Amino acid sequence: MSKNKVLNLRDKISGNEVDLSLSNLSEVPVKELSSFPKATAVDMSCNNIISLPPEFCSLTHLVKLDLSKNQLTRLPDDLGNLVNLQHLDLYNNKLTVLPVSFSQLRNLKWLDLKDNPLEPGLAKAAGDCLDEKQCKLCAIKVLQLMRAIQEDVDRAREKRLLKEKELEKKREAKQREREAKEREARKQEKAEEKEKRRKEYNAQVAAAAAKAQQKKNEKKKKNGQAADKNVAAKPAPKPCRSLIGLVFKLLLLLMLGMVGIVAACQLTDLQKEAVCVPINAAVTDGVSWVKVQEGVARQLLLNLSSAVKELVESSQTTKN
């Protein structure tokens, strides 16, 4: 409203009452009314008000309110904030229901809801308001009904909140379960990755060991082949020749020993000893035997030579 209208509103105030009836209002001057907190009784009857703005519920100083003969189809949800309201006239509007917060108007002592298209339950509770007694009874019964509705709403809200809480708990439980599964999956994945790395490491170690063993075997094989070549290059001595050589050596040593003994007995002072007497005798006999054999051998050689000569001559004669 403009400044002039504010001044006009001031002109409409008389004591604690503000008379805005028959003012052709389509909206409630909430801002202007809030400027006059001492004006506790407001008459806005016989206007064209369709609805009350939410800000109207801030006029908590109101004690008496007349909104009869308007076009109200609904009241604001927070109407219950008008805790000081004692007298409310809603005669001849288009209301069908009241806000649940209506139950909070604990100081309400007078109410008129005649000539409104109220729902059956609300209409039955409101009854008629033809005199002071009926209007007071209307206030009592409507408050009782709205309190019952408020309780039902509260129970429904509590039930809904409980259900939402249970659903939230279930969601949290599912979330925890999902997180636990994810943690377990990550743990399993890490374990599998660790096992995979361990197997890869073991495989690498085994491969390195096998490679080292292969090199060792190849080296050993090469060394074995070289040894085989050396063995092949050096033929093993024949056992028989080794045995003959050993016997020959023994005989040679024996002969040398005997020659030594004979020499000792022939050339040294030992020849007069009793030990050397048979040896010297044997040597003398041997020398004699050798000389005899030498003569025999010479005779054999002469005979052989003569025989060969005769054979040669005979052969030449035969050829001629």
UniProtKB/TrEMBL annotation:
GO CC, any one term: nuclear envelope
Identification of the protein by name: Leucine-rich repeat-containing protein 59
Annotated region described as Disordered, given as residue ranges: 168-236
Organism: Nothobranchius furzeri (Turquoise killifish)
Biased composition (Basic residues): 213-223
Keywords tagged on the record: Coiled coil, Endoplasmic reticulum, Leucine-rich repeat, Membrane, Microsome, Nucleus, Repeat, Signal-anchor, Transmembrane, Transmembrane helix
Membrane topology listed for this record: Single-pass type II membrane protein
Segments crossing the lipid bilayer: 243-264
UniProt feature, compositional bias: Low complexity: 202-212
Compartment annotation: Endoplasmic reticulum membrane; Microsome membrane; Nucleus envelope
Listed InterPro entries: Leu-rich_rpt, Leu-rich_rpt_typical-subtyp, LRR_dom_sf, LRR_domain-containing
Biased composition (Basic and acidic residues): 168-201
